[in-house]
Amino acid sequence: MTESQVLVSYRVENGIATFTLNNAPVNALSLAVRTQLQENLEQAVNDASVTAIVITSALPMFSAGADISEFSDAPQSPMLPDVLNAIEQAPKPVVAVLPGPAFGGGLELALACHYRISVADNKVGLPEVNLGILPGAGGTQRLPRLASAVTALEMIVTGKPRPVLELKGVFDKLADNQQHLADIVSDYIGTLSASDVRPTCENSLSMDQQTQAVFEQYQTGVEKKMKGFFAPAQCIEAVKAAFTLPFAQGLKREQELFMACMDTPQARAQQHFFFAERAASHVSDFDKTTETRAIKSVAVIGAGTMGGGIAMNFANAGIPVTLVEREQSALDKGLSVIRKNYESSMRKGRISEGDVEQRMAMLSPATDMSAINDADLVIEAVFEKLEVKQAVFEQMDAVCKRGAILATNTSTLDINQIAAVTSRPSDVIGLHFFSPANVMKLLEVVKTSDTSADVIKSCMQMAKRIKKVPVLVGVCFGFVGNRMLEPYAREANRLLLEGATPERIDRVITDFGMPMGPFTMGDMAGLDIGYFVRQSRQQAIAHDPSYAVVSDRLVEQGRVGLKAGKGVYLYEEGSRVPIPDPAVLDIAREEAQRLGIAQREDISDEEILVRCLYTLINEGAQILEEGIADKPSDIDVIYVYGYGFPVYRGGPMHYADEIGPATLLERLEHYQKACGEYGSMWLTASDLVKKLAAENKTFGAYQKEQSHA
Ligand code: 3H9
Q1: Dist CA 645 CA 652 (whole Å)
Q2: What is the DSSP letter of 176?
Q3: Whole-number mean pLDDT of the chain?
Q4: Looking at ligand 1, which residue's alpha carbon is closest to its atom 16?
Q5: Which residues lie closer than 8 Å to 32 by C-beta, 6 or more apart?
Q6: 536 has a pLDDT exceeding 90
Q7: Rounded to whole angstroms, how far apart are CA atoms 258 and 351?
Q8: Location of each CATH 1.10.1040.50 domain in the chain
């Protein structure tokens, strides 16, 4: 921004001073905006001809709050809380006029004004908790004074936006549309005078028994549902201060709690993740000038679990889908599973009965491939075997119209080899949905060496239409997510052989914040899946006889996981609760003996964490070196959305930055040495990890450097 850039314009008309925010794209309250707001306020207060002040926006959004990109720098005056307090203390009525959403500091700005007017079809929120912090510009003190304790807690602790229609105590007037908003402003504000000044801070609150019970309920909820997160409990504390302290002291308490949150690895992680998610759509393969292909109709080949789930995404977005299966019975089964899923969502109140029928009506079942000839995008979701998929692609190539995008949902196979059987490899791409495909937000968009830029761009945009988070990756075995999972699972299995129990390994990983440990995850996915992959990749992994050997033995005994009632753990009928089984330890002991591996009692939690997780990070670094992922933050997005990596750790690559590159390398090398021959085979640090450690550079710094290269 240049010195002279006007980000908050000032205009006086008929005694009304209007400050108009215009800091595209979202009116972030940057230093320059805060400075100009403050200057405008002084000018309006000192101008005797001004009787009232309006704060509004030239953009569709009122304001998305504090400028998050400034959080990593030292704070600079004027600070937002001071600017907002000055607004509240103004001797002339100040009215916030919202043509669109207000979030975080943006809503706090509106709350500091004496009146609020909005279009009725609008949403506002205090989503700071998602950034590992709390509203730190008076939101925790002013919102409860305007709404109830329940509303304030709900909005601040969950961070979820609320329609203004549900916040009648907060908004003084709601307009039907933008024109009506303008009319209200001109009719209403002219009637205000100095006697209408109405600072929210003067509303007094007290803690009665009922309110106390609400706080207790939220405290229990946070402990249960937001385990591991630091900020939610601080949010509750801050709101509590509104009920137990006078306003000025409440603000002070809010500040202390805000600073306590800000200065944590969690806040850094969650703020990193905010930008990581957005950066994932900034890819160098295309630019603004790249044309996109219209995707108005879709076909999905295969109505199994994956195909059905994929089809649901499009039906949900109102995009017609042709669902193809060879056999009518398989097609009927697929459709009935989809209907059951929708009906279950209806019972949970997520969608209406009308929605169920509307979405089912978007699906056209077919048993003949000719039904896909006019589809703009065709997604193959058949059995995970190269020859099978190649055969389907040959058929797709024969029947699909020119210009159609041909996608495969493979999770491991070489898409270059799939594309090679078609006459149009530049139209072929991977769309790797994660199971359950109708629920999981991640979509790995896999480009081959031939995929054209417009196909990539079209798929990245299409993903957003179906509410997925797309990350562009390249072709290799398992792409990014599953490839990184391989060392993680390998080390877990090896540690089991070396004497650590599955439940201990799982516990270390869940204590770290993953939703489940590697063995519980393996049982849920089905141990036979990994077994099948290992069988088909024996060439690549046969040089280590200890590789997943216990898992192999279990599968050979029919212990394929949850679906069989037994895998690494035992499961009671109808239950998903894993029960440790000493028989598995016997197998591990026998196999260790057979392979000459000494079982140890001295395996520490730290060793488990390093060998499972640091090796996963190391693989991520290898992936970056090979150019399979574009940037470290993309890997973080994949892990948070695809594998439940705790967002408060920012993703594996950001977590590595918190540990520091030197520690990452030192720990890897320590266990590489400690594990002897096995360590040399599997635990060698990648060149990138070595380079970053030598230069004491984080993955974040590396990413910045790469983007400027
Ligand atoms: C806060 O207010 C603290 C205070 O309580 C106390 C302070 C003392 N700052 O998401 P989009 C960028 S904390 C900086 O793609 P959409 C974003 O990175 C703040 N930049 O658009 C992107 O850049 P790029 C509390 C921001 O339409 C571009 O704007 N507020 C900010 O899908 C477009 O964003 C929040 O947590 C920001 N605050 O969604 C709200 N917001 O194009 C955070 C956005 O280079 N923001 N950018 O990738 C959002 O949730 C969504 O951006 C929003 C728009 C819903 C507003």
Answers
A1: 8
A2: S
A3: 96
A4: 26
A5: 1, 5, 7, 23
A6: no
A7: 37
A8: 481-525+591-708
Is 93 within 8 Å of 114 (Cβ atoms)? yes
CATH number for region 3-262: 3.90.226.10
Q: Where in the chain is the domain with CATH 3.40.50.720?
A: 298-473
The 3-state secondary structure of 82-148, one letter per residue: HHHHHHHCCCCCEEEEECCCEECHHHHHHHHCCEEEEECCCEEECHHHHHCCCCCCCHHHHHHHHCC
pLDDT in tens, 645-690: 999 999 999 999 999 999 999 999 999 999 999 999 999 999 999 9
Q: CA–CA separation, 294 vs 341, rounded Å? A: 29
CA distance to 401, 664, 680, 707, per residue, from 676 (Å): 57, 19, 6, 39
Q: Is the pLDDT of residue 330 over 70?
A: yes
Q: Is 705 a catalytic residue?
A: no
CATH number of the domain located at residue range(s) 298-473 in this protein: 3.40.50.720
The CATH T-level fold of domain 481-525+591-708 is N-(1-d-carboxylethyl)-l-norvaline Dehydrogenase; domain 2 (1.10.1040)
pLDDT tens digits, 206-264:
999 999 999 999 999 999 999 999 999 999 999 999 999 999 999 999 999 999 999 89
The residues lining ligand 1, judged by C-beta closer than 6 Å to any ligand atom, are 25-26, 28, 64-69, 80, 103-105, 108, 127-128, 131, 135-137, 139, 275, 278
Q: How is residue 7 written in tokens?
A: 């980000």
Every domain of the chain with CATH number 3.90.226.10 lies at 3-262
Q: What is the ipTM of this complex?
A: 0.99
What is the band of 424 on the pLDDT scale with cuts at 50, 70, 90? very high
Contacts of 387 (CB under 8 A, 6+ apart): none
Q: Is 128 a catalytic residue?
A: yes
Name the token pair of 518.
């590697």
Does residue 410 come out as left (phi exceeding 0), alpha (psi in the -120 to 50 range) or beta? beta
| Residue from 1, 21, 23, 26 whose mutation best tests the ligand 1 pocket (most atoms within 8 A of CB) | 26
Residues with Cβ within 8 Å of 480's Cβ and at least 6 positions away in sequence, in order, are 444, 471, 473, 620, 623, 628, 629, 634, 635, 638
Residue with tokens 């029947």: 399
Q: Could you give the 3-state DSSP secondary structure of residue 30? A: coil
Residue written as token pair 């591990």: 588
Closest C-alpha to 459, from 449, 442, 472, 448: 472
428-461 pLDDT per residue, tens: 999 999 999 999 999 999 999 999 999 999 999 9
Task: Write down the residue that tokens 């801070």 correspond to.
Answer: 201
